[in-house]
Design a protein that fits this description.
The chain contains six helices and no strands. Helix 4 packs across helix 5. It is mainly α and 133 residues long. The chain folds into two domains: 79 residues, 434 Repressor (Amino-terminal Domain), CATH 1.10.260; 47 residues. The chain is 69% helix and 0% strand. About 5% of the residues have low confidence.
Length: 133
């Protein structure tokens, strides 16, 4: 069974569309598109940017955007865990859904913050003059 990225690539190739065409239309860099197709999710910026990339890519190919995003979330590990608890009361299920949504947003925010801190550290390390004896 093909991976998430392999499915995207197969759909793109089936339509005889190049990454360059998608990049020009969506304004998403080719490296980001390649990262999606190669399942290298750690090379993507994170958070809503990734979902936006997947949505734009799937829209360009004419795929079901919501399903493609759901598939991405599952493949990347960003999908909220499936609840094993059975809730009989409608209000309780709404409350659980809201809680899971907030938890997912908090995880995304924390990932983005850590990624930003790493980027700043790398930039500062590059910009700092090397110590000379």
């Amino acid at each position: 069974m093909p991976s998430f990225g392999q499915k995207l690539k197969l759909e793109r190739e089936k339509r005889k569309i190049t990454l360059e065409q998608i990049s020009v239309s969506t304004k998403i860099g080719i490296r980001m598109l390649q990262a999606l197709e190669e399942d290298n999710f750690n090379q993507l910026p994170g958070g809503i940017f990734n979902r936006g990339f997947v949505r734009a890519y799937s829209r360009f190919l004419g795929l079901d955007e919501d399903q493609t995003i759901a598939d991405y979330m599952q493949a990347s590990g960003d999908a909220p865990p499936a609840s094993t608890e059975t809730v009989s009361h409608e209000e309780g299920s709404r409350e659980n859904a809201a809680h899971e949504e907030v938890a997912g947003e908090n995880r995304d925010r924390d990932k983005d913050r850590n990624r930003d801190k790493d980027k700043v550290s790398r930039l500062e390390a590059r910009a700092a003059p090397s110590a000379m004896p």
